[in-house]
Known about the structure:
This protein is α/β, with parallel strands linked by helices. It contains 20 helices and 13 strands. The protein has two domains: 238 residues, Rossmann fold (3-Layer(aba) Sandwich); 193 residues, 3-Layer(aba) Sandwich (Rossmann fold).
Amino acid sequence: MTRVLVVCAEPIGPQVAGPAIRAIELARVLADSHEVTVAAPAPSVTGDPRLTLVEAGFADYDALSAAVAAADVVVAQSLPPRLLSKLPSLGTRLVADLYNPTVFEVLEAGRDKATPARRRQQRTVTLAAIAQLAAASHVICASEQQRDLWLGMMAAEGLVDIEDYARDPTLRSVIDVVPFGLPSAPPVALDPPPIRAMFPSIATEDRIVLWGGGVWNWLDPETAIDAIGLIEETRSGGPRTHLVMMGLGRPASEELDAMRAGQRMLGHLTRSGLEGDVVHVNRGWVDYDERGGWLLEADLGVSTHHDHLESRLAFRTRMLDYIWASLPIVATTGDTLSALIEREGLGLTVPAGDAPALATAITALLDDPSRLAAARLSLERLAPKMTWQQSASALAEICSGELQTGSPDRAALLRTTLAQYPPLLAETHATHGLRGAGSRAWRNLRRALTPGS
């Protein structure tokens, strides 16, 4: 039985966002056929007795390094540079889970920072992605568009190995798609219904449009708010249409917590005068196991984003929840899942930043029971084809060694690992001063000079 370590950079527990959700769900599928350990920062809990937990984040280098050394296969969205460079000498196979288009996401995530900090961050994230590609025996991502991105980066960096290509001209044995999945069990309703319990001004007959996740720089909640305002302005009797923001804070890393998108959204909402009337914000975060109750109480799911590079490569996990709950969707065009909505008849799509078009689409669905029912039927048919068990089946085969995988490029790995240290030290100096930068430099040097570290 293969010993698999799934590494997550965020704590795993009742409240989780996309990276932790993906890590724990993949670990649960792999545990059906492998011996699985999960490494995540404290405090973490897996909720699955089949999984061994190591509470170790990137700062807990020794504990994380020991867990990596004990594994046959490591599945990781990222690893510290020094630890990544150790993998070839350990004989541990890395499956790099690059489901997140970090090299473009960083352009939006750091938008509020000063230009020098943004450039350091962009440089570090790009080098880290190249290092992952160089170290990996296999790469997985969430969509064909993402696969094209990583194939392009591999080609530009000389990481398309001739022998790998001769064996498999499709290179599927090296980099393949493992989409975000859905739970096999259907969502469970909560009693009392959680949305109206939190926001009692929403009447029983009113309609609920759910914003099913947090607010990040690359998203566009302002257009959703404006669309609800337009619907309210033109309403002539009958039920009201409410927008409910399911989450605002995030149980996550400092980097994402530093985004100002939530503040901008709240400022826009204050100026609109709609909060507490037809727009409602949960300033906390819904537990992962309770989100089904929110989804089932809603009438429609919404997802709006800006028109930029991140959108082209994104895989909006909140829309997977809508599919899981058979919740018809209205979304901005331009990403993988909006194309799925159009192709499968799961709802309607609208141009980016177009509040009138979004208002029209929301009303067109909510006011037409037959159209809404048809979308729900399409969602019900699609959901069983998108479970975690199905999406992760290829990963289980990779971990078992049934599929021949690629060859790590040690020279490129060493080059990109070393190249990460100058921008990382510069960022540490900018944020923690000379003493912080010196401490980090000494720590990295000590690890590099210590045998087996």
